[in-house]
Amino acid sequence: MNLVYRCPQCQKVIDQLAVPGEIDDEALGFNVLTAEEREDIIEVEEDNTYVNVVCDECAQDYAANQTLYNTQIH
């Protein structure tokens, strides 16, 4: 199984891990997520599990644009 961390905004692959065999959700820390969070964050396709996390670049862009947006509105 491959565990692929990717940005849902730009689709950049942040990291990829080859995981031998099956690993349960608790070992990956997914057990702390709600069902809704799991649906939003985790996608399973054949031999790949995709974990959607925002990359640093997109987070910075959002923060900069959010600041600009709030300045224009208020």
TrEMBL record:
Record-linked InterPro entries: Fin (IPR020115)
Highest taxon of the lineage: Bacteria
Pfam families with a match to the protein in the record: Fin (PF10955)
Organism: Halobacteroides halobius (strain ATCC 35273 / DSM 5150 / MD-1)
Name of the protein in question: Uncharacterized protein
GO BP terms: regulation of gene expression
